[in-house]
Design goal:
By secondary structure, the chain is mainly alpha-helical. It folds into four domains: 71 residues, no CATH class; 77 residues, Fumarase C, Chain B, domain 1 (Orthogonal Bundle), CATH 1.10.275; 210 residues, Fumarase C, Chain A, domain 2 (Up-down Bundle), CATH 1.20.200; 83 residues, Ribonucleotide Reductase Protein R1, domain 1 (Orthogonal Bundle), CATH 1.10.40.30. The strands form five sheets. Strands 1-5-6 form a three-stranded antiparallel β-sheet, covered by helices on one side. Strands 2-3-4 form a three-stranded antiparallel β-sheet, with no helix packed on it. The chain has a two-stranded antiparallel ribbon with strand order 7-8.
């Protein structure tokens, strides 16, 4: 093996990897048996695109050289499984570098408008400026600085006019302003899918305005309601989340071009204003060297709230799909399998998946809050966190919205089972109506409560238990209520008579 050099494929997807000195990555090789001897100087983002590369590695000396002539896109298992193209594209390295270039060109245009640099140079920059992801990674492997690597690569395309790029700026001017562009673009995608979810819930609620079911408190049968009313609560909740998303749109649309520590020492505040205007942003009121992370935390906590609501809906579906309840059921496709061992199983896997993903988004929101406290005017402790939490949360939130919309649209509803469950033990859930009917006849409330409770508990959890029959046979009840009055007390229309007011508020 002395002096032997081999070319190895290094795939970080699904493999155990560690950070080595120099930020290289140790990964398991498909072509070499010694996992610890393969390393590639690449820097995977959370989206982890383009991390499959070719490495030349000397098995004896450990010397390695990165050959960037070929790069292949790959994603980590989590992201690959839950990434939909519409959102995933916004968090690729390709899109990230496009936003960086967008910011740099906008600054150049602003500089020219104020006469700080030649317009001809800007025209040349705009005509020639480009980048190559593979080349940026190659340079970064040497310089250990992503923005410098990017600027070096751009200047390879631009040539002499490139000396006017990045004048008076710091890396954070590019990174934070470009990140805002990514967040704003992601926000728009999420908002559009919130609208689709709203419509799906509203349509399903309209379909089941009058579908009677039992309401539950503490998991115990309480009083009649409708499935449409349950969905009305979901709709109202998502409408509030839409309002929150709309409200933060202005807050997240913020950029900074203020230079080192944010004092505008080497760049005019007018440059910032013009640049942000061109990018559809507003200047940060008072940045340090970075945009204060409370802005980003607000965005992430808003997503966390939406995810929490989706989890609430998912948990409700899971409970209502239990075999002994079976009032609703996730759509089960032809050919779908529920269990490797038990052929009868039809599991609420979509709702369970949504429940789990919500936990990630809420956890990421906590990480965003931890990012608010940086040292002095900046450090980069937030950077590594944001490379994970922003793409992960945006990608997962998008997936959750799409999945929840489909779940609601295709939800199987079983009114007969709802009616059956509501009337268990002879309609004990109508106990309050019987109680109030007796009070209206002049019986003391405590006495009426005792009578009704005695009959209800006699029917509860008893085979053939029939609360309505027991009430109808009770001497004190018969003395005060006619047969028609007793029958009317068991009519669910009484409990439902005011629901139209709620439906009207929500356009159901």
């Amino acid at each position: 093996m002395g002096g032997e050099s081999r070319t190895a494929w290094v795939n970080l997807q699904g493999h155990v990897w560690d950070t080595l000195p120099g930020n290289s990555i140790t990964g398991e090789s498909r072509s070499l048996s010694v996992a610890t001897s393969i390393s590639a100087c690449v820097y995977p983002s959370s989206a982890c695109n383009q991390i499959l590369t070719i490495v030349n590695f000397d098995l004896v000396t450990g010397n390695r050289a990165l050959t960037m002539d070929r790069l292949y896109p790959a994603t980590l298992a989590l992201i690959e499984r839950y990434t939909l193209p519409e959102m995933g594209e916004l968090w690729t390295d390709e899109y990230k570098f496009k936003t960086w270039l967008q910011v740099e060109i906008a600054v150049c245009e602003a500089q020219a408008e104020l006469g700080r640099i030649p317009q001809a140079a800007v025209d040349e920059i705009k005509a020639k400026a480009n980048f190559d992801v593979a080349r940026i990674l190659e340079i970064e492997a040497e310089v250990r600085h992503d923005v410098i690597a990017f600027l070096t690569n751009v200047n390879e395309y631009v040539g002499d006019a490139g000396r006017y790029i990045h004048l008076g700026m710091t890396s954070s001017d590019v990174l934070d302003t470009a990140l805002s562009l990514q967040i704003v673009a992601s926000h728009q995608v999420l908002l559009s899918h919130v609208e689709k979810l709203i419509q799906a819930i509203r349509n399903k609620a309209q379909d089941h305005r009058d579908t009677v079911m039992i309401g539950r408190s503490h998991g115990i049968h309480a009083e009649p309601m409708t499935f449409g009313f349950k969905l009305a609560g979901w709709l109202a909740e998502v409408l509030r989340h839409r309002e929150r998303l709309c409200r933060i749109q202005d807050e997240i649309s913020v950029g900074q071009i203020s230079g080192a520590v944010g004092t505008y020492a080497n760049i005019d505040p007018e440059i910032e204003s013009l640049t942000c205007q061109k990018l559809g942003l507003k200047p940060d009121t008072a940045s340090t060297q970075v945009i204060s992370r409370d802005v980003h935390a607000e965005f992430m906590t808003t997503l966390a709230g939406l995810a929490a609501s989706i989890e609430r809906f998912a948990v409700e579906i899971r409970n209502l799909q239990r075999t002994d309840v079976l009032e609703v059921e996730e759509f089960f496709a032809k050919g779908q399998k529920g269990s490797s061992a038990m052929p009868h199983k039809r599991n609420p896997i979509k709702s369970e998946r949504l429940t789990g993903l919500a936990r990630i988004i809420r956890t990421n929101a906590l990480a965003a809050l931890e990012n608010v406290a940086l040292w002095h005017e900046r450090d980069i402790s937030h950077s590594s966190v944001e490379r994970v939490i922003f793409p992960d949360s945006c990608i997962l939130m998008h997936f959750m919205l799409v999945e929840t919309t489909k779940l609601v649209q295709n939800l199987q509803v079983y009114p007969d089972n709802m009616k059956r469950n509501m009337n268990m033990y002879g309609g004990v859930v109508f106990s309050q109506r019987v109680l109030l009917s007796l009070v209206e006849k002049g019986i003391a409330r405590e006495d009426a409560y005792r009578i009704v409770q005695q009959c209800a508990h006699a029917a509860w959890n008893v085979e053939g238990g029939d609360f309505q029959t027991l009430i109808s046979q009770d001497p004190q009840v018969k003395e005060n209520l006619s047969a028609d009055e007793i029958k009317e007390a068991f009519n669910p229309d009484y409990q439902l008579r005011n629901l139209d007011k709620v439906y009207q508020r929500l356009g159901i």
